[in-house]
Write a structure and sequence with these properties.
The protein is of the alpha+beta class. It has helices spanning 3-10, 18-32, 108-116, 198-206, 217-233, 244-247; strands spanning 36-41, 47-50, 61-64, 68-74, 79-90, 101-107, 121-122, 142-149, 155-161, 165-167, 173-179, 184-186, 192-196, 212-213, 261-267. Helix 1 (3-10) packs antiparallel against helix 2 (18-32).
Length: 272
Amino acid sequence: MSFLDDWKTGQTAVPKNEIKFFRFFAELLSKHHKGVHYYEVHGNPGHVSFSSGLWPTKPPVTKELGDLIIITYDYGTMQARYTINQNKFQKTTGAQRVWPAFKFKADIHQYDLLAYRPDVEVAGSIPFPQSILSGTDYDSVGSYGVFYEGEGHLIDFIYSIAKWLSPQSYVNSCNLILNTFQNEMSVAGRETICTVGIETFLKHLLGMRVGAPVSTPEIGGFLNSLIRKAAEEVGEEPPVVDLPVFNEYVGDDNSAIGGGYRLLLINVGDNA
């Protein structure tokens, strides 16, 4: 069976929850593709403090950075990408309409953080680099992944960079709206803006178009530490990402990473 066939037939046994759906997605991805590692490290989420892009005159806000980190890398191009992703499950009473506008519930401050990508200060148990969001001009470093009830009441998936979404209101719990008439959009192949449908998302993910390039040793070393910590938590040998940007700035002690996070790591070159 194909990935899509397995997704359609297996999802009926999955509780309607974004974490469980993404876990199922990662399990199927590992079944159908090589070089896939998915980790769930338990603990308090990693929070950061930041100055608001929506309300720049207000005091700094403290928020979880994001509940999922997706990393892809390719030895053929010697490049890696990452995105800080906020997973959601949009409950519906019937099939959710994607056209002409899709909307889902979200936290306005989380949107503020991922869309405006400010410098961050650590306010929790994960030592995020200050520039983890701000150190790139790729908007796709901050993104959302939303599971929703689609055609035939099957669960499907929409990916969007945070910047492409519009708040319906500016209250704490708001609706974010995705305005699109296309199943996939990108900026001249530079980065994917949004995808509609889990198979389309998978194509862009394995095609190294999701997320921002890992361009500094500080970011690469931090992501490498997260990978090693996650593997250590489950008693595995950590997968080696043998790229210079991941190995120029690496410490031997992962004890500074004390919080919980979810991480999906894919060697896309193994899937050529």
